[in-house]
Amino acid sequence: MEGETEETFVTEVLAPHLYRRGYTKVSARIVGNARQRDRRGGIRAWSAVKGDIVRHLKEDLGCLATTMVDYYALPQTGAKAWPGREAAGRLPFAKKATKVEKSLLADVRKEMGADFDSRRFIPYIMMHEFEGLLFSDCVAFSEGIGHPDLAGQFQAIRDQFASPEEINDSPVTAPSKRVETLVKNYQKPLLGTLAVLAIGLDAIRAECPHFREWLDCLERELANQLVAG
Fold first, then answer.
1. Letter string b/e over residues 134-169, b meaning 16 or more CB atoms within 10 A of that residue's CB
2. Which of 18, 20, 199, 225 has the fewest CB atoms in 10 Å of its CB?
3. pTM of the predicted model, to two decimals?
4. Which residues have C-beta within 8 Å of that of residue 170, sequence separation ≥ 6?
């Protein structure tokens, strides 16, 4: 997970759903700098994150590991670069997240060795960032953050795109930047959490195709494990 809002989403929204599906343990680990207030720079280098993922996979041979990080502002070049991110920037929208995810999986598979069951690692890249998911239900979004008067303006933004995931990623028009324009002093850890709790998993799943594919995959791999067991 990239930050506190994503962590809350996993523990308060995603985990209960997966428990109902048969998971016995769901936990979130932050890979960004959200808790290190004296540091800046957002997401950690892929090399460090990969190390955490590989250690976890090796320590718990029965676990599934996944990621939940924003495509927007994901490091593209230099020491912190994430595999596939730079190349993904030149691809059509529908191929961007998949490019990064396949690159992450290939890198982890290489690190784990030939015997690794690649179904145990399910990378997920959010398009374009967490705030995009909040446009899945603009009424619930506005009410969740205590600004019901903004529902129409949120909906007007949402209606410009085929899905909330397509709300674009420039420094001016990224989902979070659009929200910050309408909500002064927008505090993501607090208001983002309140919003996602109000919106709920069903609305996000219905409105966001790539998110839905990730959730389907998590459910499917558990079902496969249960059958195999």
1. bbbbbbbbbbbbebeebbeebeebbeeeebbbbbbb
2. 20
3. 0.91
4. 177
